[in-house]
Amino acid sequence: MDSEIQMPAPVCLIENVKGKLLANQEALDILSTIPQPVVVVAIVGLYRTGKSYLMNKLAGKKKGFSLGATVQSHTKGIWMWCVPHPIKPKHTLVLLDTEGLGDVEKVRTEDSTTCVKELQLERKCLQIPFFNLSIGNGYKEKNFNLPRLCIRKFFPKKKCFIFDRPAHRKKLGKLETLHDDELDSEFVKQVAEFCSYIFNNSKTKTISGGIKVNGPRLQNLVLTYINAISCGDLPCMENAVLALAQIENSAAVQKAIAYYVQQMNQRVQLPTNTLQELLDLHRACEKESIELFIKTSFKDIDQQFQKELAAQLERNRDEFCTKNIKASADCCSALIQEIFTPLEEEVKQGIYSKPGGYRFFTQKLQELKKKYQMEPGKGIQAEEILQQYLESKQDVADALLQTDQTLSEKEKEIEVERVKAEAAQASTKMLEEMQKKNQQMMEQKEKSYQEHVKQLTEKMEKERKELMAEQERTIALKLQEQARLLKEGFQSESRQLHNEIQNLQKRVSESRSKCVIC
Ligand SMILES: Nc1nc2c(ncn2[C@@H]2O[C@H](COP(=O)(O)OP(=O)(O)OP(=O)(O)O)[C@@H](O)[C@H]2O)c(=O)[nH]1
Ligand SMILES: [Mg+2]
């Protein structure tokens, strides 16, 4: 089922048409077919700095992302190439090659692994470490520092690679046709180290809360970002995740309900002998259905979708109860017809309309009632349908009683009373049954609620722990960055980061003491 992705060449993911961004349907369709978690590697940097060339190396191919042969910027928009991850089984590596920046100030990226290739062609980068800031308040310094500060802020964890010139100047134009032994051996080694580092260190793309991103999720994120940008908004990770959660949680409800209905149809044989039997099966299917929802849903704010699931499960349970009642009633009516029709025929023929006939009639009636009661599989309406039938035939029995000449008036009166008492007893029993059923339904409601709460609590507790670990990791990295800024003499930047860290720490201690469900 989880077959490896086959994409012979990159496709354009986002087109840049006169500054307007458009998502390309072909690329979105490809993403929608990738059920595996994705590792996303994007590259950004100045134009004509060998980004596309490097991305081809990551794809393990000589050709793919198209390289520029002129001095003009070549790649337009964002191109995507999905390949099986070379070292992580059951993962897809999504390579994103971007349009070269004319101005490094435009660099704005978010979480996925991003390589910043800032190496100008024909120029070795001798400035080590790479992200040092320039002292001074002039335009030149600000211009120099801003992208570096941004990169340092958004990518607290960094790793720098310096590449030597790949080959002799004359050969640079046709790099992609050269064999490794025609390239500078240092460069070949550096590229191999770079690729190995990326493969080993790039994590599966997750969204806040440790939720793994697969192809369809990435597709939705792309669409949400593009929409936000088209509307003039800043693409915001939080909003994109919420939009994604809406789509997926609503699908998770549908999936969980479909599972419940399918399992109930498979496991329940209508009519069931007792209501409890149906409710027990409901409880088992409901538990699994909630599990399925909990597994696939995320960021279900105020449990909006779980509440919807609960309501739909209740409706479906009631539907099964109604079907159960109907199945039982149909079965009992058919049985009554089969068992009692011969007696009705005999009455019509006048067999019991003679002296002593009433006694024979009641005897026969008792026998047939027993026969009916002995019959298995009638379901929960057995008694009610029988009583309804007997009641409907009561005037026939009365007529036979009144016309039987072997009985005295006194005996007839006693018999009428006996029949009345019997009917009253039967209706009391039915009332008790009904109360019992109501009680069982109420208990089931409480159990359903408890099941929802139990599963939700477990999930929220797990998510809370993950979020806290995530926040603590971020704080640790930010603290390192703050210390570095301070050491470099950037007091105001360091102070700003210090405030950010304090806010984060406050949030962590809040979530530590927070009760999961109140
Ligand atoms: N000197 C040198 N040339 C390189 C290097 N990497 C690639 N090239 C060559 O530089 C040219 C441009 O490379 P690309 O990979 O297209 O550069 P790019 O950054 O994708 O360019 P844009 O798409 O315009 O942003 C090609 O002819 C490559 O063969 C490198 O590390 N050093
Ligand atoms: Mg390019």
UniProtKB/TrEMBL annotation:
Domain (GB1/RHD3-type G) ranges: 35-115, 136-203
Pfam family, one: GBP
GO molecular function, one term: GTPase activity
The entry's keywords: Coiled coil, GTP-binding, Hydrolase, Immunity, Innate immunity, Nucleotide-binding
GO biological process: cellular response to type II interferon
InterPro entries assigned: G_GB1_RHD3_dom, GBP_C, Guanylate-bd/ATL_C, Guanylate-bd_C_sf, Guanylate-bd_N, P-loop_NTPase
Coiled-coil blocks: 407-514
Family the UniProt entry places it in: Belongs to the TRAFAC class dynamin-like GTPase superfamily. GB1/RHD3 GTPase family.
Protein name listed in UniProt: Interferon-induced guanylate-binding protein 1-like
